[in-house]
Amino acid sequence: MLRWSYGLTSGLLLTGLTAAVIADPVDDVLVIDEEIEMMTRVAPPEGHPLSEVISGWHYRTPETRALEADSFQNPGLLGVEQGESIWYTVDGTEGKSCGTCHGDAGESMKAVGSSYPKWHKATNRPINVELQINQCRVNNMGAEAYKFDKSGQKPLTAYIKHQALGNPVEVNLDEGDMQAWWEKGKELYYKRTGQLNLSCASCHEKNNGNYIRADHLSQGNVNGFPTYRLKQGTLISLHNRFRGCIRDTRAEFPAAFSDDLMALELYVTWRGTGLSVETPGVRQ
Asked: Which of 6, 92, 225, 262 is most exposed, with the fewest beta carbons within 10 Å of its own?
């Protein structure tokens, strides 16, 4: 469970957020390689708190937006290429690769990046792409599960999700007990945490469009993960970003793939319903 203690409130920081310079997301169109037009501004699903769902791409600088629009310039594509190599690499006691069972990822994985998390009957909880990879490695390949953010987990996840580039995000809340997990994720999204007493919604709902320091706050949609972050010079996984945000509130962050973070992933993914999969996105 998260230790999301309240501690000291952050009146100064909240005042800074609400007094920050306001700048609307840019009015532009994302077209990858002048071929694939992405859906980056869409109508929200029923029950969504915002009037429009907007990709984080619209909140970035012109230079950053240009990087994502050109596959030859997008530094995250190096990770995707690494993931493609892993896809065809035999590992484990069964002498199999991902490609042994799934063949051409461009065909077999083209809907995966837009439809996860999914309900997993065997574990009675939602499962994301990273956990599905580990299930396949252990049960089908006789290989060890990847540790969080280690070995090929990020590049392989990026490669698989990249096959859904341009497809609209849509998770199925009717499977299993997904609705209850969605409710849990929603509760966590609005829960204020740590000494700074902030929630996800403090930045990404109440203050999206504002600047905090040099960063333009987006709606926090996750349709581009794993995302290449220029400040870190590498692909960043979704649960890594969740934990980083929680750490910044000065709260203890939970383990990756914990129940809390899986519920949060489900809810935040739903908030981006209809946006195109951008993996790998490029952000500051």
From this structure: 6
Q: What is the pLDDT of residues 118-168, one digit of tens each?
A: 999 999 999 999 999 999 999 999 999 999 999 999 999 999 999 999 999
Spell out the domains of the chain, with CATH numbers in brackets.
11-74+177-283 (1.10.760.10), 77-162 (1.10.760.10)
pLDDT digits (tens, 9 = 90+) for 206-253: 999 999 877 899 999 999 999 999 999 999 999 999 999 999 999 998
Provide the whole-model pTM: 0.92
Helices 259-271 and 238-248: crossing angle, nearest 10°?
100
Q: What's the pLDDT tens digit per position in 31-50? A: 999 999 999 999 999 999 99
Q: Which amino acid, residue 231?
A: K
